[in-house]
Amino acid sequence: MQVSSINNVKIYNLSHGKSLPEVRHSWIANVQRRIELIQDFDMPTVCTAIKVSRDGQYILAAGTYKPRIRCYDTCQLSLKFERCLDSDVVTFDILSDDYSKLVFLHIDRYVEFHSQHGHYYKTRIPKFGRDFSYHYPSCDLYFVGASSEIYRLNLEQGRFLNSLQTDATQINACDINPVHHLFAAGTLEGRVECWDPRMRTRVALLDCALSSVTEGTEVEGLPSVSALRFNSSLGMAVGTTTGQVLLYDLRSSHPLLVKDHYYGLPIHSLHFHEQLDLVLSADSKIIKICKTKQGKIFSSIEPPTNINDVCVCPGSGMIFTANEDPKMSTFYIPALGPAPRWCSFLDNLTEELEENPESTVYDDYKFVTRKDLETLGLTHLIGSPLLRAYMHGFFMDIRLYHKVKTMANPFAYEEYRKEKIRQKIEESRVQRVQLKKLPKVNKELAIKLMEEVEDEDALSVKKTKKGTTSILRDDRFKVMFENPDYQVDEQSEEFRLLNPIVSKVGQKRRKQLQRLAEQDGDDEEEEVEGRASSEEEESSDDDKSWVEEVRVQRRLLWAENNARRFKERKQEDRDARLRPRFYQIKDGEEFRSFGDVARKQKMQKASLEQRVKREESLGMLDLADTAVGSKQLTFTLKKTEKQRHQQQAERDHHEERRKIRRAAGHLYTREKVNRRKLF
């Protein structure tokens, strides 16, 4: 059993096994601490839905794999019967006060009826169903699903009636008011359509998608209705696929309250607790219990596995959950109500636990952080069974911790022993006459604090608070001057950037003390209007000075970091050159020298241009450079028959024109001779 307190409300997880990590106790003590209300209260793989009969005697759960239904008798605290089904169950309902009349909606559109002896009848609806409700006055079953129609199946006549046509594309959830039997259906578009079963007409339309988006909420996509639940005659709760819960009064179209789970997961279960005026809403991660009027969180339950369904035992503080786990969870909250009559001993047990609270102590385990694992060199064990994740660190076996600690630091015990001896000696010296001396840790800080105390004593400044005379005399800060882990590193980046500011603050403080001493109780003189006081001028100058000092420190840190990185790279290059190299001689190659092998490897890493230039300089490469490069490729395209005929016709035409052409060269030579004669 696990006990948790959220918002000062005790929650008892009765189905919880051994606490994490598993504490080793004797077998008798383990049996005494274990509480098992119902035997075999689990499923082979996953539980998808769970309900309690109206008489409170039977608990029915649907699960997989293989698809099955299990009934538990609370009078016997054990399994009564188990029935296997043909397909998985989407949801189911109990029509009678006990388990004698059951209705199952399957994932393959089948609706199956079971009586006390077992399977009774099976039928099928036209579309895939998602939810259904039973109207007791007319014996009608209303089915909603991946369709715009609401299918009605009358159990008295044994036939389907005319369906109700809605304006939605798909319907996700439905419910019937237990007082005036108003039927409500939540649609994919984020609306709630209300129908009167007597008239078979729609009487109201409620837009919940727009009302669910309030100030401070972030919604991804259209908020569709995923859950519906009526409360008495006028109350109604609506859950959306984006994780909001809206509480309505049927007389108003605006929600009275909007609560967000802040997980962005669909709300799949809604329940009301009328005695305390609470509403329980659940998604796959958490169950939140809120007050319906103020909206304040009453408490919350966050199981380790995802939640599929929630069932509240009527008139009590018992809650059952169907999880993505073989074990079905059982929670008991005394603040919600007493335990059911079949487990009334829980009230006495919880009262005894409250009178004698016990804290869980893990004697055989050591809590280590990630930094401790890095120090011990055990980061590779993260994710293995040797480390159990818990809060901001891990639990590991104390024997393994001591063994690794001894291997990491063999002289740790000797150092610890010497430190203890030194502390004992220091404690014995306290009784002697004490001389004023500096502590071994944070000497500079101690000197600074002593000077401040001396200045205050010399100036006789009145103290406004007790305990501010000296940190050295305060026992709360004694460890800071004794433990070496608290040593201030003046070379760290944080100290160098904050030291100018701290020093300027100290200077201001000393100046203020001197100014108060000079005043000697006299009133301050009035300042001339429009002229800043000397204190303001000094403060502005001090601000400028410390800003400049911080900038100087930043430049120095930047230069030191660059120098350190350059030195590290230089050291890495030197180590790489001094590191021995191994070469592999391939088959068929002759080993000449290490220089030859290194030259070949160097040429393999060189670019193509460098290799070509080297081969040209050695005369090993003879290429004829052209405009398109040093390589030439000649190819001819295969021509078709039509192209060959066309080219042949062109050649014949040119040959024919060449034959009939008359030469005119003699005219040109004759004109040239006549010109020579004239000149």
Q: Can you walk me through this structure?
A:
Helices cover 30% and strands 27% of the residues. Helix 8 (493-519) packs antiparallel against helix 9 (534-578). A hairpin with a 4-residue loop joins strand 5 and strand 6 (78-84). With 679 residues, it is of the alpha+beta class. The longest helix has 45 residues, at 534-578. The protein has a 5-stranded antiparallel beta sheet with strand order 1-2-29-28-27, with no helix packed on it. A 4-stranded antiparallel beta sheet has the order 3-4-5-6, with no helix packed on it. Strands 7-8-9-10 form a 4-stranded antiparallel beta sheet, with no helix packed on it. Among the domains are: 2-20 and 27-355, Methylamine Dehydrogenase, Chain H (7 Propeller); 365-426, no CATH class. The N and C termini lie far apart (135 Å). Residues 361-409 form the Nucleolar protein 10-like second domain. Keywords: Nucleus, Repeat, WD repeat.
